Task: structure prediction
Amino acid sequence: MKADCEDVKPYGKGDTSKSEEVKDMFDHIAPKYDFMNRAMTLGLDKGWRRKAIKEIAKSGSKEILDIACGTGDMAIKMVKTIPGAKVTGIDLSPGMLDEGRRKVTEAGLSEKIVLLEGDSLKMPFEDGSFDAITVAFGVRNFENLEQGYREMWRVLKPGGVLVVLELSTPQGRLTGRGYKFYTRYVIPSLGKLVSGDSRAYSYLPESIAAVPQREKMTRMMEESGFNETCYKELTFGSCTIYVGKKG
Result:
């Protein structure tokens, strides 16, 4: 099942792949990424990550893969929250990884967190390498979402858990209208002011609107091999946690 978000690219260049454009975009905005995350979510992203990490913690997982790890927020929070956890992060963007490695070093967590440059659609790991996988705000950037899920299933151990945290579109009449105005007008203006790249933050609401959501997302996970899938909406449906297991 092809996802509409695969056709949405940050800059819309005809001669470059989505992966290349996503890499270039994140390299460009990396120095301001953390600030923009806090600002555009009004700080709610911290709580969303905590809720996703609770799903990992209750599974008892220790060897964790964080895909689209970015600047390392998810990885750092997991090793601080889950006793004995070790996290391997993978991301396309060298710029984001530079920020992440700096934060990991400053936190004194270099022995527990390793951040690698790589493609989530073709990962350099053996089958069944990890107890759990997390993806926070990353799957809508995949060039091929179904391939990404199949690759996650491959590197996950039998019985392992996948937790995806992704932005979504509120379904309520009033919240939907407010969300649409905020994401279409406020966030791109703020993005241009802070990062100098308004297109990167216009791509954000476009990619959110196009990514599979709720039942469509869990169905895609199931078609890629996961079972016991479920989802939980957060903050009026503006963010959603998806969970699946490898039976």
